[in-house]
Structures are given as structure tokens and as C-alpha cells.
Amino acid sequence: MLSERRLQVLRAIVQDYVGTEEPVGSKALTERHNLGVSPATVRNDMAALEDEGFIAQPHTSAGRIPTDKGYRLFVDKLAGVKPMSAPERRAIQNFLDGAVDLDDVVARTVRLLAQLTRQVAVVQYPSLTRSTVRHVELLALAPARVMLVLITDTGRVEQRMVDCPAPFGETSLADLRARLNSRVAGRRFTDVPQLVEDLPEAFEIEDRGTVATVLSTLLETLVEENEERLMIGGTANLTRFGHDFPLTIRPVLEALEEQVVLLKLLGEAKDSGMTVRIGHEIAHEGLNSTSVVSVGYGSGGEAVAKLGVVGPTRMDYPGTMGAVRAVARYVGQILAES
Fold it and tell me: Which of 124, 120, 165 is nearest to 146 (CA)?
């Protein structure tokens, strides 16, 4: 365990390096920070921090920079994330309040996160498997053709065409709509199959085939495998950090193009708390020079998806964590009110 003073020195090194982009020397530390000890003591502390792998000397200059291990300890020992100012909070709320539908919410969230953090923003669409049904609408398009519209509690809307085996009257359609909603509205998607399995038996024999076809389409919609969708923005921000990536940012850009990699980076939505992965903690080799800050968002206190940012390990962790958390909170409020 590091002493409190050496932790203080490490914090000062991280803050200065993030702010100045220059390796930090003991003289600069004692001048800029009220450490209460002599430069010689700071040099001893820096030597101990280097021996334990928390800081490193990038070249022969007197300066040191934090390692992945140093950043990790800094993040783990953070007393709190940097709160957003009142004007920043208002700006977030005003920007997100203008959204007209779920796609717009996600698009605005990506733009906002990228602007606030000046990193790459990644937002996962709410997952169907963690959602509940708000309403099922059935619309007659032709005597034997129906449009099924599924609306979730997160504002996601899924539409499907259903070709029925026989003509289906408006009265029967209204009856099916009412019975279906009375069973599934407000229920989790995972519960729906059991809730509707005996529904065809409530209808006349000649209508049962059509009811079964509609239900089959509904259940297919609930379990579609391609539901995991992401939106990404702010990739151009990486060009500002060219010197933070060894050799080139190409491996980072290539990794960011792979949706599977990004989903793994964000992690499971059920782990809704703040997650910070730093450098070599990220399994993908192309991202070993980056850090990922992510958090779950959702309505009613339950995460339905995750959002976060990807940037160089030399990032303002308190500020980035504060921005990510604040945006997630506002997105959750919008989903709850939508």
C-alpha cells in the first residue's frame, strides 16, 4: 500500500501530465502543488513510485509519466467524479430534451458526449431483452395483411408486416389487439411467450391460424439476434491525440469499426455502475493505448443499455467520468418520460 503522501505525489503527476502533455519533474511538482515537503523528498517518492511501476521515464529527461498501473490507482482512489456545472447541466438537458424519437435521442447523446469529453462517444441502443412492452398496435392493411407495431418502455418502435393465412375482420383484429395488450402491456419481454401461448384458443376456430401467425411474428420480433445496435461519434477527436498512441492511431480506428469489440468494451448492461478500463486491461490489442469509461442508462433505475467514451489513457478521468454519468442520468430521465 502506498503512503498518503506518495498517493498525493501520484495524483499530482497524473493531473500535471494530463494537463500539460509533458513528462513531470520533481521541481515542477513542488512549485505547482502544495505537497508540504522538499524537492528531495518528492524525488525519493517519485523513485519509489517508479520502482513499484506506477510511473515511468519515457526518455532520458528528468520527467516521469503515469503508467496504466498508475492511472488505475489514481482512478481507484478518486474521492469523487468532477460534477458538471449548472450551465453544463442545463445545456445537456436542453440539448437532449429536443429529441423527437429514440433514434434522435441516441444520435444527440453521441454528439453531446463527444463534444463534452472531446473523445470518441459510443452509445448502445436499449436492448429488447431488458425492455418491457408499452403497447402492441395492429393495423389492417388488406383483408389478409396486418402491420404489427411493438412499442417498448424505452421508446423503441419495431414494425413488422404479417401475411395472414385467411382474411381477418376489423372486429376480430380489435379483439386480438385488446386481448394482447391486456396480457403483455407493462410486462417484460422475456415473460411474453408464456403470457400469450394459449391466446389462439380464445378465438373462433377459423381465426386461430391468423392469431397464431400474428403471435409468431411478435415473438420473432422479441428475440431477434441483431438487436444489439450501437452508434459511435467523435472519431475525429482521436487525431488530436496522435502523440498519445504508439506509432499510429490506425489500430484504434480499426478496432472502433468492429461492433463486437465495442459491445465487449461497454460490457454487460446489467453491470450498470461506472466502469473504467485502462490500457492493457482492455483485451483487444489495438486498444491497449486507450481507456474506456462506460456506465449503464435506463428508466426506473434499471439499466437497459450502456454508453461511454474511448480515448487515450492520458485523459481527464474525473471530468470524463462526471460527463458520462451526467449524460446517462439525463438519457434515463428522457426514456422514463417518453
Answer: 165
3-class secondary structure, 121: strand
Q: Which residue type occupies 61?
A: S
Contact 37, 5 (CB under 8 A): yes
- Asked if residue 304 lies in contact with residue 269, where contact means CB atoms within 8 angstroms, the answer is yes
8 A C-beta contact, residue 171 and residue 223: no
CA 308 – CA 323 distance, rounded (Å): 9
Per-residue pLDDT of the chain (338 residues; tens, 9 = 90+): 678 889 999 999 999 999 988 899 988 898 888 888 888 999 999 999 999 999 998 877 668 999 999 999 999 998 777 888 888 888 898 888 888 888 899 999 999 999 999 999 999 988 777 778 989 999 999 999 999 999 888 777 889 999 999 998 899 999 999 999 999 998 988 899 999 999 999 998 999 999 999 999 999 887 754 457 899 999 988 888 777 776 678 888 888 888 888 888 887 656 678 999 999 998 888 888 899 999 999 876 678 889 999 999 999 999 999 999 999 999 988 887 76
Rounded CA-CA distance 121/116 in Å is 10
Contacts of 75 (CB under 8 A, 6+ apart): 276, 278, 317
Alpha helices in the chain (DSSP H): 4-20, 26-32, 39-51, 68-76, 86-97, 102-117, 170-184, 192-196, 205-222, 250-256, 259-266, 317-337
How far is residue 306's CA from residue 148's CA, in Å, rounded to a whole number? 28
CA of residue 254 relative to chain centroid, distance: 19
- The pTM assigned to this predicted structure is 0.79
User: Would residue 267 be called left, alpha or beta, if left means φ above 0 and alpha means ψ between -120 and 50 degrees?
Assistant: left
